[in-house]
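2024-03-11 09:14:02 INFO worker-7 job=invfold-0412 stage=load source=structure_tokens
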């Protein structure tokens, strides 16, 4: 058994009997490493760049559910709209409209699962909507007329810190947003169920605070080497 397969098995065990699933974040790691996790039974993988995702997908089995977790430019949507399972990083109505349009052009039989990325970290990060922007999006006529996407939940990236109180408070904020949006816009709609939060260093905390999707990279594949890219 390889180290990667071991790690997958570890998370399988830790998440058993929880509502939480693992997104194995394979960015910067070779397809062979993804295959090791795949061979251990894992099927949900996350990438943050379109080009890298396309190159890897080409070489890997097509029953992988790919999640895009990085910022997505509108002009790149067309490259992934045919096959992508989930786009976790939806941060504007304009982007959502493009995803819907391209998915329609490909005549997808299953909608693209989309998650609203909300900013929860205190440093003003470039990406992610605030709560009011998410409300505005969900209230828009444009959103209501979309048939090729469905909103499955929210995603957030916490501050990069070891401060447990701070992390907990950010995770709670995201969960609070999720619950408010669910009550307001998704009453009795079971599609809206995901809270994507938690990475290698803080996934246990995120799980305690109600995460349903943890995004773990180095904790599965080892440290990333950016010098080669
Ligand atoms: C890279 C990345 C992760 C995984 O980070 P690790 O610390 O390696 O687990 C999770 N979420 C996003 C959005 C990322 O870009």
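2024-03-11 09:14:09 INFO worker-7 stage=emit residues=229
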């Amino acid at each position: 058994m390889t180290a990667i397969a071991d790690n997958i098995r570890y998370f399988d065990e830790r998440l058993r009997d929880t509502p939480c699933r693992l997104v194995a974040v394979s960015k910067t790691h070779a397809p062979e490493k993804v295959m090791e996790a795949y061979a251990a039974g894992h099927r949900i993988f996350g990438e943050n760049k379109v080009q890298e995702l396309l190159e890897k997908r080409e070489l890997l089995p097509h029953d992988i559910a790919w999640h895009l977790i990085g910022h997505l430019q509108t002009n790149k949507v067309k490259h992934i709209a045919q096959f992508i399972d989930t786009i976790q990083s939806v941060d504007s109505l304009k982007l959502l409209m493009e995803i819907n349009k391209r998915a329609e052009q490909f005549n997808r039989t299953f909608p693209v699962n989309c998650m609203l990325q909300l900013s929860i970290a205190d440093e003003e990060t470039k990406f992610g909507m605030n709560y009011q922007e998410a409300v505005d999006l969900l209230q828009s006529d444009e959103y209501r007329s979309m048939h090729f996407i469905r909103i499955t939940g929210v995603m957030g990236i916490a501050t990069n810190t070891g401060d447990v109180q701070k992390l907990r408070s950010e995770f709670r904020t995201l969960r609070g947003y999720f619950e408010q949006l669910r009550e307001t816009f998704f009453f009795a709609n079971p599609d809206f169920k995901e809270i994507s939060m938690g990475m290698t260093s803080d996934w246990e905390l995120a799980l305690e605070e109600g995460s349903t999707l943890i995004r773990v990279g180095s904790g599965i594949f080892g440290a990333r080497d950016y010098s080669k890219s």
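2024-03-11 09:14:09 INFO worker-7 stage=report msg="Residues 25, 27, 48, 69-70, 157, 199-201, 215-219 surround pyridoxal-5'-phosphate (CB under 6 Å)."
2024-03-11 09:14:10 INFO worker-7 job finished
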